[in-house]
Amino acid sequence: MVANHPMIELRRLHRFFGKTKAVNDVSFEVPRGTVFGYIGPNGAGKTTSMRILASLELPTYGDAFVDGFSVINDPDRVRRRLGFMPDYFGTYADVNVEEYLDFFARSYGLIGRERHQRLQYVMHFTGLDVLKEKPIRGLSKGMKQRLCLGRAMVHDPAVLILDEPANGLDPRARIELREMIRELAARGTTVLVSSHILTELAEMCDRVAILERGQLLALGTVAEIQKQQQPQREVNVGVLGDPTSLLQWLTVRTDVADVRLNAHSIRFAHQGERESEAALLREMLQAGFAVCEFGSHNRSLEDVFLAVTKGLVQ
Ligand SMILES: Nc1ncnc2c1ncn2[C@@H]1O[C@H](COP(=O)(O)OP(=O)(O)OP(=O)(O)O)[C@@H](O)[C@H]1O
Predict the structure, then answer these.
(1) Which of 168, 182, 269, 302 has its CA 20 to 30 A from that of 74?
(2) Residue closest by Cα to atom 17 of ligand 1
């Protein structure tokens, strides 16, 4: 096995349930220490492929690897290296936070001082140390999510698979979760995290995959995907006086398209980098237009996500 193999790899992964192609020929690699976003609408196949990685489900065809070990041929080694946080939190007996985590630490074979230290570390990392004696059925949704993360990381796995961990969290809890995930990656943990929406993951992920109806639609950094979807930027120009002559000036240019007159400004799509936008503004001023406003922006991530996916469910 080579030293710098990907920590997660899906290789032509397929999983069918009858006629439903839950995962349909998906391949990608995730390098060590990165946060990888797995994004798609309901029924896209995110949970199914995560369950395959967690060796809870077998592929129909293809294979998946964790730290170089196949989920088909080496599920025990995969389980030791991987922590899985499912998208639901089941009901549990009347135990408190520490007892709950201790149970999972024991089930991973941690003993004595090592188990004690690991529990202290996990409770401190997740902020649960102050709640360690609280019965888990009395925890808030956000605290239960932290406990679920604590459970997934109790055996210090190299890879964490988090299925919609931000589901149902309030804005502050989302930010805290994002910080925890980034910190885990900074310490070398590889994290695969799923969500329905790109905006939620955009800031914390190094790379993302967009999935729909079992198929991979886009793969790359958020900026790469955004650029693929919209190489043009939308520019808005305000000008003093009658805008008609600027409108005509813009319409004949080849680097400008879709010129529209708004109430007090002109909008158009501009092909090119930021430098050519600056050059365009300079030319406008040199041509004598009294420009009082000039702004540009990419399409929002929501728009990009909607453009990539088609809203198809299965
Ligand atoms: N055990 C199963 N038996 C039959 N069909 C299944 C099973 N598990 C998943 N599916 C189907 O496979 C498809 C993909 O489901 P999956 O749960 O992987 O999607 P998802 O992207 O996680 O969706 P969500 O965001 O709604 O959780 C869906 O059509 C689902 O109904």
Answers:
(1) 182
(2) 47
